[in-house]
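Memo to structure team: turn this sequence into structure tokens by end of day. - J.P.
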Amino acid sequence: MIYLHVPFCHRKCTYCAFYSKPAHGVNAFGRYVDALLAEMEQRKGEQAHPIRTVYFGGGTPSILPLAELARIVDGLRRSFDLSQVEEFTLEANPEDLTPDYLSDLISLGFNRLSVGIQSLDDAQLRLIGRRHTARQALDALENAHRAGFHNISADFIYGLPHGNFQFSIFNFQLITHISAYALTVESGTALDLQVRQGRVVLPGEEEVVRQYHALRQQFEEAGFRQYEVSNFARPGYHSRHNSRYWDRTPYLGLGPAAHSFDGRRRRWNSPMEVGSGMWKVESEEVLTASDAVNELLMTALRTTRGFLLADIPEAYRAGLRQKLQPYVACGWLYIEESHHPSRHIPNSTLHTPHSSLHTPPSSLLTPHSSLLTPPSSLTYRPTPEGLLHADGIAAELFL
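Reply from structure team:
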């Protein structure tokens, strides 16, 4: 799979800590695309696995003129075999999605959109620095559907002041996927300054949890099933690209500040250099066996499918099973006796199991009985409450 980072934004949202640059016209776009094409040519031998997904993230990829997007797509087709791509995603802001732009995206081969709606409350949108209105967001989804996009994800943020989700005006039939993220105050952002100065007062943890459960219920009533702590999908429409991050599939990251993973090491690019608009591979990290286990735990416990104990190297299993028991006892994790074959593979290339994204608990075990069951048949999965605590659970389990 391939990720391309488009660093440009019209302006930075108050909460955003991702690497991005202000858009300074077509010259900046052209220099960026020139550098991106050069990187493709230089690194085209690194992607040894079949490419199933391509994802344009940012920044705001939809800020790019169609001519520059076409140059990038043409470059991808020259440098890589895209014949097996199933999912071709562009992140977009609602204000960019005009009917003509959407039709041209279809002609370039994009088959999925991820639209940053964030809120349906205009006051909240202004507070966090978004440029669109709720009406523009709704129109963008209508335009996308009419243009021929039938795989559309909508992003929302909860944990905002006056958390009022006006879904009575929202047509869930237009979308196939939802990502809902808790607002996080990142150091150095405009929101961080506003909170410290008392200009913005955010809700407490209890209210944020209430909003999470309320959203989860509304999404499930509308036909979306949760498969990761922040992601919900209609059956068959989970994000194939993001799901491969969570099962540690190797991927190639192109563009400034993009990350790559080859199954054994992680590499990351530098930001763009001032003036030249170029970037380079800045650093890399070779993962140890314990690093790989920790990554597996951190990602798998954020998904509803969890992990198969047999995919943990045998030397770590007994200690890990003991650490897991308190979380089973308090109802944050549950255990299934699985009949899926183990995917145990070398330490440097561990993956989570191939089990269904939505397998219901069918053969649950108690904490005591699980200790008597062969580890090769145990799958640990988070409950809905456990998903809220996934990061904390994983941190306590780290080797």
